[in-house]
UniProtKB/TrEMBL annotation, chain A:
InterPro entries in the record: ABC_urea-bd_UrtA, Leu_Ile_Val-bd, Peripla_BP_I, TAT_signal
GO biological process: amino acid transport
Protein name per Swiss-Prot or TrEMBL: Amino acid/amide ABC transporter substrate-binding protein (HAAT family)
A Pfam family this chain is assigned to: Peripla_BP_5
PROSITE patterns: TAT
Record Gene3D superfamilies: 3.40.50.2300
TrEMBL record, chain B:
GO annotation, cellular component aspect: plasma membrane
BP GO terms, sorted: amino acid transport
CDD domains recorded: TM_PBP1_LivH_like
Mode of membrane association: Multi-pass membrane protein
Source organism, top-level taxon: Bacteria
Residue intervals passing through the bilayer: 12-40, 52-71, 77-97, 158-179, 210-229, 241-263, 275-296
Keywords noted in UniProt: Amino-acid transport, Cell membrane, Membrane, Transmembrane, Transmembrane helix, Transport
Entry's family note: Belongs to the binding-protein-dependent transport system permease family. LivHM subfamily.
Localization: Cell membrane
Pfam families: BPD_transp_2
NCBIfam families: urea_trans_UrtB
Protein's UniProt name: Amino acid/amide ABC transporter membrane protein 1 (HAAT family)
Length: 421, 308
């Protein structure tokens, strides 16, 4: 806890001053603490019968590695394994090496619930890193609450949820959306917005927040809002509509294969994102998605998020190079992959502050914890979401982003936003 | 909705929207043609059609890399080579599948449904193991991206025009093959009366295998062309399968004319509705109309009269 040589984030000084009170709690990655297991007898740190021995502790990894979601969740699994390996290399948690049991949710929500039950009841894991879609999280939620487990959930999502048994390491909707909209309206002078999304809960809830913010708080205009079924591949009609309405900003929350189709057809229709207008601003197209879209098709697009692979700080550089060393030089790191990576670290921090693996003690120790992550400092809020920085990046033709804006302060998570319902 | 626009702008938008509808029509024909041939001529419902399509897409992906690495000078024309290779790869796999799996199930149509569905799962997992779970980005030559200006205000995407041209060529080739060649005559004879056709010396097993291979090969070419407009991933084939079946069933199995009529009406309905409503509502209304018409006309728009 005494490592004050930790690297500063780009927005460091001003934020640091604001947060000086909490600085003593801030932990840095990659700094071994050298806790020894014999100082923490198993009987004392594990009073509820979790899978903790004198030299190991077992956690669960629960993602889809088969089925349609494997495309998205693979990166999360890789990041979590990297974090666990790094934590073990530093001596583990309370002197105990982390072992993991990996289960496959198989892109099927009842399977997620069943595997979650297996991990908690049979394997007695001390925590679970897992889930990706909101549907899978909703499926496992009752299981985690019934058996009092702890889930570290990595995806940025629509909010409207707060469970004592989940730590949300991704941003909830207002964190990701509002700063980006403020930026595009202030710095780019955008007046009109066209909202387009895939047809399910996250885009619909997010666009609801975006519309309220644009109309009620910014006083600007939404000229179109529409949704396409998941897997939709034909966007020529909506692109014609966009050409007719000439919005300043196309605000896109499209996921999966539809993303690829949308950007390819946008480019083919002669809408050049590298020019001044229209601005395409997305909250669903990270480095991971651009792999499939192709850098040349996403070039010039703006993406509003917490993390970018190009973030220029030593923690991130080490994270990216370690990730590539473990999973191949071709691999890229996107928003959710990063969020998955910090899950095990946040858990470790909470366990060591609590001096115990007991779920209730870990929960009590979590709020207020601070961690210097590749995306800058984050702090766990009372509502189990993270205070974090929101940034806007502009896609280059190599599929990476140039960060063009970041918030000066950490953005408070607000999963039940007043005035946006 | 149109009050603020000049006449010229509206004309341009409607012309571009017309093209959007035609492009969608071409895509529907291209993706359904292979399935229609197999379903219509052999009565086999090929649930793995989408995976044959994606095989073509992956072949295109590999070809683009080979050209980039080995002969970058010829990169701008690699797409034509890729389409031929996609046809060969998907066609060969199709013939193998027919030989190994389908031919044992001709008398059990429901089992072919299950068997090809299983095949689609196997192929998806195979793609995932070989190419990784993530989508791959296929680099398209520059000349195929962007759009052409027909007038000052009317611009049409080049890849759309390319798909339209390709559809016309393939459709004409299939038509010629079926109605002008000896093989086509044999195939139609087998469809109309298998026993009689065998009686006059037609090798019906060979015809079946070639028909299945042809259907899958066309799916491969379609998949190759779709790398320009959609995604290439292990499960991307599933994005096309529902629309494909819709077009084939609505058109009436076995009729190429029915396929065209059905693809045309569905694509026009969808693209016009998408323009005036939102995407999901357009889909709902299109599906409702199709269901309604199929209730009145269960055999589809056009049907062949067969001796059962």
């Amino acid at each position: 806890m005494t490592d004050f040589t930790k690297p500063r984030q780009p927005a460091g000084p001003s934020r640091r001053a604001v947060l000086a009170g909490g600085a003593a709690l801030t932990a840095s990655l990659f700094t071994p603490k050298g806790l020894r297991a014999q100082d923490f007898p198993t009987a004392a740190v594990n009073t509820t019968g979790l899978a903790v021995t004198d030299d190991t502790v077992t956690v669960g990894i629960l993602h889809s590695v088969t089925g349609t979601m494997a495309i998205s969740e693979t990166g999360s699994v890789q990041a979590e394994k990297l974090a666990i390996e790094q934590i073990n290399a530093q001596g583990g948690v309370l002197g105990r090496k982390i072992q993991f049991i990996q289960e496959d949710g198989a892109s099927d929500w009842p399977t997620f619930a069943e595997k979650a039950r297996k991990l908690l009841v049979n394997d007695k894991v001390a925590s679970v890193m897992g889930c990706w879609t909101s549907a899978s999280r909703k499926a496992v939620l009752p299981v985690f609450e019934q058996y009092n487990g702890m889930l570290y959930y990595p995806t940025q999502y629509e909010g409207l949820e707060q469970s004592p048994n989940v730590i949300y390491t991704g941003q909830e909707a207002t964190q990701q959306i509002i700063a980006g909209l403020d930026w595009v309206s202030r710095d780019k002078g955008a007046e009109t917005f066209y909202l387009i999304g895939s047809d399910y809960i996250w885009p619909r809830t997010s666009h609801k927040i975006a519309r309220k913010h644009i109309e009620n708080f910014l006083g600007k205009k939404v000229v179109g809002e529409e949704y396409y079924p998941l897997g939709h591949t034909q966007f020529n009609s909506v692109i014609n509509k966009i050409k007719l309405k000439k919005p300043d900003v196309i605000y896109a929350i499209i996921v999966g294969g539809s993303n690829v189709a949308f950007f390819k057809q946008l480019k083919a229709a002669g809408i050049e994102m590298t020019e001044e207008k229209p601005i395409v601003l997305s909250i669903s197209t990270s480095e991971d998605e651009i792999l499939g879209v192709g850098g040349e098709n996403a070039n010039g697009m703006f993406f509003s998020a917490k993390y970018f692979q190009t973030l220029d700080n030593p923690i991130n550089q080490k994270f990216v190079s370690d990730f590539k060393a473990m999973w191949g030089p071709e691999s890229v790191v996107g928003e959710v992959t990063h969020n998955a990576y910090i899950g095990p670290w946040l858990w470790k921090l909470a366990v060591e502050k609590a001096g115990s693996f007991d779920i209730d003690k870990v929960r009590a120790a979590s709020p207020g914890l601070e961690l210097d992550t590749p995306a800058g400092m984050v702090r766990i809020h009372e509502n189990h979401h993270l205070w974090s920085t929101t940034r806007v990046g502009r896609a280059r033709d190599d599929g990476q982003f140039d960060v063009v804006f970041e918030t000066a302060d950490l953005v408070e998570p607000d999963p039940f936003p007043d005035g946006y319902q | 909705m149109f009050a603020d626009y000049s006449m010229g702008e509206l004309t341009a938008i409607f012309a571009m929207q017309g093209f959007a509808g035609l492009i969608l029509f071409s895509i529907f024909v291209l993706m359904a043609l292979g399935l229609a041939i197999i379903f219509g001529q052999m009565g086999v419902i090929n649930m793995a059609h989408g995976e044959f399509l994606i095989l073509g897409a992956y072949v295109t992906y590999i070809t683009s890399h080979v050209f980039q690495d080995v002969m970058p000078g010829l990169f701008s024309i690699y797409f034509f080579v890729a389409m031929i290779l996609a046809f060969i790869a998907s066609g060969a796999l199709g013939m193998f599948v027919e030989w190994a799996l389908i031919r044992h199930l001709y008398k059990r149509p429901l089992d072919t449904l299950l068997a090809t569905w299983g095949l689609s799962l196997i192929l998806q997992q195979a793609y995932r193991s070989i190419f990784g779970a993530r989508e791959v980005g296929v680099t398209i030559p520059d000349w195929m991206m962007g759009s052409v200006y027909l007038t000052d205000m009317i611009e049409v995407p080049i890849n759309g025009l390319f798909v339209m041209g390709l559809t016309v060529i393939i459709f004409a080739a299939v038509g010629a093959l079926m109605f002008r060649s000896t093989w086509g005559r044999s195939m139609r004879a087998v469809v109309q009366n298998r026993t009689m056709a065998e009686g006059v010396g037609i090798d019906s097993e060979k015809i079946d295998r070639l028909t299945f291979g042809l259907g899958c090969g066309i799916a491969g070419v379609a998949g190759s062309a779709f790398t320009m407009i959609g995604s290439t991933g292990p499960t991307a084939g599933q994005q096309y399968i529902v629309d494909t079946f819709l077009v084939v069933v609505f058109g009436g199995a076995g009729s190429l004319l029915g396929l065209v009529a059905s693809a045309f009406s569905i694509s026009q309905a969808q693209s016009i509705l998408e323009f005036f409503l939102s995407g999901s509502m357009a889909k709902v209304l299109t599906l409702l109309a199709v269901v309604g018409i199929l209730m009145l006309r269960p055999q589809g728009l056009f049907t062949l009269k067969l001796r059962k």
